[in-house]
Amino acid sequence: MRGTHPLPLRFIPLLALLAALLLPVGVPLAPPAAAAKGAADPVRIMPLGDSITGSPGCWRASLWNRLRSTGYTNIDFVGTLGPQGCGQPYDGDNEGHGGELVTNVADQNLLPGRLAATLPDIVVMHFGTNDVWSSLAPDRILAAYTRLVEQMRASNPDMRILVAQLIPMNPSSCTGCAQRVVEFNARVPEWAGATGTSRSPVTVVDQWSGFDTAVDTYDGVHPNASGDEKIAGRWYPALTALLEAGPGDPGDPGDPGDPGEPSGCTASFRAVSVWLGGYQGEVTVTNTSDSSVPGWAATVVPVDGARLTQVWNGTLGTAADGTATVANASWNGTLAPGASASFGFIAGTPATAGAPSATVSCTARAASS
């Protein structure tokens, strides 16, 4: 039958050209979805470590759900490894490789490829347990930390990094491990102070204080359910502080002192006990506002070259000049009007230091609207 032949193929490019010419001038074609990147992109967070982080590392599930339930929804946990259960829905991507030594990761240059595949904005690192177990010297482990931080910044100059003081370790097959963790953790704040920058801060998170291997692990090393909750509780305030500050903004510590901007809380210091080379101190934070606050952070500036080395009932971050910032723990952040919370700490001092003294201040986190 006439009139039923298909168009010759040579007509099709011509029709496409005519259609393109009919488009209004100045109307751009939409870019591919993969090429679009805007301000609404989620913050990419890499949990980095060994089996404590990834096998199965269920503190990540607890942390993820705690963040989501408190309004931090624009986040994405990233890593080349996937979830391993944990009995609750969560974003299980991570970089926790069971059995890895942080020194091997640095020596074998393993991290750059993992960073390139995931492009994190924040790294949450609990790494070095296997190195301590292997009796490697703190200097060597911290050199590996430095190498990894350099690689993180090569991937992202604005990388923000949370580094844990390791949870305690007391396996029956390693009688010296418990003390080696203590000795290593004591070195971490000074390393972080020398390594952090205003553009790429390194914040120390005390995962050691208040963690009991007899109660919070199933084998003296790996956390059980209660241990997972404690680890998540220590990461939470430090991580939310970074999420609230945003990239390139370490938190603007000068803001609370600006005229006309009350901090919402006061802080007081007392020395509990003193010994040669150190002392135990306590800081009490009081909500002075007329409404409940969901969290707080205290600044501690010790005199005579003292430095905070351990904190309990709070999460420690230390700047290069020795100034310490302690954020509330998960259980003592919410304060009603007039209510108080306290945290304790150990400070190391030079032999020439005088009586313990510190300037303390605090700021309350605003309630979510």
UniProtKB/TrEMBL annotation:
Task: Name the species this protein comes from.
Answer: Streptomyces lanatus
The record's section on SUPFAM superfamilies has: Carbohydrate-binding domain, SGNH hydrolase
> Which residue ranges does the record assign to the CBM2 domain?
258-365
PANTHER family (alphabetical): CELLULOSE-BINDING PROTEIN (PTHR30383:SF2), THIOESTERASE 1/PROTEASE 1/LYSOPHOSPHOLIPASE L1 (PTHR30383)
Give the protein name, as stated in the record: GDSL-type esterase/lipase family protein
> Which Pfam families does its entry note?
CBM_2, Lipase_GDSL_2
Keyword Protein biosynthesis annotated: no
> What CDD domains does the entry give?
XynB_like
InterPro entries assigned to the protein according to its UniProt record, in alphabetical order: CBD2, CBM2/CBM3_carb-bd_dom_sf, CBM2_carb-bd_dom_sf, CBM2_CS, Ester_Hydrolysis_Enzymes, SGNH_hydro, SGNH_hydro_sf
Region of interest (Disordered), ranges: 243-265
- Keyword Zinc present in the record's keywords: the answer is no
Q: Which UniProt keywords apply?
A: Carbohydrate metabolism, Glycosidase, Hydrolase, Polysaccharide degradation, Signal
